[in-house]
Design goal:
- With about 400 residues, the chain is mainly alpha-helical.
- About 80% of the residues lie in helices and about 0% in strands.
- It has 17 helices and no strands.
Length: about 400
C-alpha cells in the first residue's frame, strides 16, 4: 500500500474531484443540446457543435499526457486544466453565435480534457495495492452525474436553460478548489515498470493487433452513444415529456451504472474482462434498438434506461482492466489519454456528427437509434476477435475495479 498517499483525506479529495468533474458532465451532456436549441440552432448545427466539443478531446488529452508523463507533474495539469476551463467557460455568458461558441468550446475543452486521464493515474497510484477499491472512489463521479442531471432537469424546467452556464462555471470552480488539496508523487514501482520517456514502448503497445481491436471496439461503442448524448432529452421532449422527467430518466441510468460499479470487482473475479465487454456490447445494441419502441411507455423506457449499467458501467470497468494490464509505468498517462481520445474524442465527435445528420429535427430518430444499435454490434464483433498472448491477458489481479 502507498503509505504516503493512501489516506482517508486523499481518497475523499479524489472522490470530490470525480464528483465535480462528472457533475459538470451531468449538465453538459444531456442539456447542452437543449441550450443550443434555445439559441435557435437546428439539429445539424447542434450535432456539429457537440462534435467540436468531442473532437477537441481527440488530440488534447494525448498532448497533455505526453508532457505530463515526461515531467510527472500530474497535479499541476489537473489544477491548471480546472482553472483554465473555468476562465474560458465564463465566455459562454457573452457568446451566442455559431462560430464564437465553437471557438469557446475549443478553448474550454482543450483545458478540460487534461483533467480526467491524470486524475485516473493519481487515483491508481494512490490506491496502489488496493486497486480493487478504485470503484469506491470512481463511484462518486457517478453520484455527481446523477445529482446534477436530476437537479438540473428541475432547475432548467422552472428557471430556464440559461442557468446551465452559471451552474457549469460553479462546478468548475469547485473542481479547481478541490484539486488544490490533492497530493501525488511518482512511486518507485511506477518508475521501475518502464524506463522514463519510453515513447517507443508506448508506440509498440499501440501497434499490437489486440490493442488496435480493443480501441476500435471502444470507438464504435462510443459512436453508438451519439444520439443518446446529443438528442435524448430533446427526443423525450418531442414525445411530450418535460426536462425534469428527462433528467430523472438519465439519472436512473446512472443509478444503474453505480450499481454495476459496486459489484464490478465480483463480476471480474467471476468472468473475464473480455466476456464482460462482450456482454456490455450486446446489451448496448439491445438498448438502442428498444429505445424508439418503448419511448411512449414510461415503465419500459425506465427499464431500458437501466441498460446504461452495461453500455457504460460494465464496459468502462472492463476497459480499465485492459488498460491497466497493457499500459504500465510512464505509459499509464498516455494509455488513459489514448482511451479518452479514441472513445470520447473521436467516437464522441463522429457519433454527434452522425446523429446530427440523421436526426432531421426528429423525423429520422427511429433510423438513428437503429444505426446506433448497428455500431454496437460491430463493436461486439471486434471484441470477440481480441486474442491476447498469455503475458498480456487481462486478469482480475490487475483489475482496478
Amino acid at each position: 500500500m502507498n503509505e504516503t498517499l493512501d489516506t482517508p483525506r486523499q481518497c475523499w479529495t479524489l472522490a470530490g474531484c470525480y464528483f465535480f468533474f462528472f457533475s459538470l458532465l451531468g449538465i453538459m451532456v444531456p442539456y447542452w443540446g437543449v441550450y443550443l436549441k434555445s439559441l435557435q440552432f437546428d439539429s445539424a448545427k447542434i450535432g456539429q457543435l457537440l462534435a467540436v466539443l468531442m473532437a477537441t478531446r481527440i488530440v488534447m488529452p494525448l498532448l497533455w499526457a505526453i508532457r505530463v508523463d515526461k515531467t510527472g507533474r500530474r497535479l499541476q495539469a489537473i489544477r491548471l486544466g480546472a482553472l483554465s476551463s473555468s476562465i474560458f467557460f465564463l465566455l459562454f455568458f457573452v457568446v451566442q453565435d455559431y462560430w464564437p461558441i465553437a471557438l469557446v468550446l475549443i478553448l474550454y475543452a482543450s483545458c478540460w480534457s487534461a483533467i480526467l486521464p491524470q486524475l485516473e493515474v493519481v487515483t491508481l497510484t494512490t490506491l496502489s495495492k488496493r486497486s480493487h477499491d478504485y470503484s469506491k472512489v470512481r463511484m462518486w463521479g457517478s453520484i455527481g452525474f446523477i445529482s446534477s442531471v436530476t437537479l438540473g432537469g428541475f432547475l432548467f424546467e422552472h428557471y430556464g436553460i440559461n442557468w446551465l452556464i452559471s451552474v457549469g462555471f460553479l462546478l468548475l470552480v469547485c473542481l479547481w478548489l478541490c484539486s488544490l488539496t490533492l497530493r501525488y508523487h511518482v512511486s518507485n514501482d511506477e518508475i521501475a515498470e518502464t524506463p522514463k520517456g519510453n515513447g517507443g514502448g508506448f508506440i509498440a503497445i499501440v501497434k499490437q493487433r489486440y490493442v488496435l481491436l480493443f480501441l476500435a471496439a471502444i470507438l464504435l461503442l462510443q459512436i453508438s452513444h451519439g444520439p443518446y448524448y446529443s438528442f435524448f432529452v430533446l427526443y423525450l421532449i418531442d414525445h411530450g415529456y418535460n426536462e425534469s422527467f428527462a433528467g430523472l430518466q438519465i439519472g436512473l441510468g446512472v443509478l444503474a451504472e453505480i450499481g454495476i460499479f459496486s459489484i464490478s470487482a465480483w463480476l471480474l473475479r467471476k468472468y473475464t474482462a473480455k466476456s464482460l465487454l462482450l456482454f456490455s456490447m450486446l446489451l448496448s445494441a439491445l438498448r438502442w434498438m428498444l429505445t424508439p419502441l418503448v419511448v411512449d411507455d414510461v415503465w419500459l423506457l425506465s427499464l431500458t434506461q437501466c441498460l446504461h449499467a452495461a453500455s457504460f458501467g460494465s464496459a468502462h470497468a472492463a476497459a480499465m482492466v485492459f488498460l491497466n494490464q497493457w499500459f504500465v509505468g510512464d505509459n499509464r498517462g498516455r494509455g488513459q489519454a489514448l482511451y479518452a481520445s479514441v472513445s470520447f474524442g473521436i467516437g464522441g465527435a463522429l457519433g454527434a456528427l452522425l446523429a446530427g445528420f440523421l436526426w432531421q429535427e426528429g423525423a429520422g430518430a427511429h433510423t438513428t437509434w437503429l444505426v446506433a444499435a448497428f455500431f454496437a454490434m460491430l463493436a461486439l464483433v471486434l471484441v470477440w476477435l481480441i486474442q491476447c498472448p498469455p503475458t498480456h491477458q487481462p486478469t482480475t489481479k490487475q483489475s482496478i475495479t
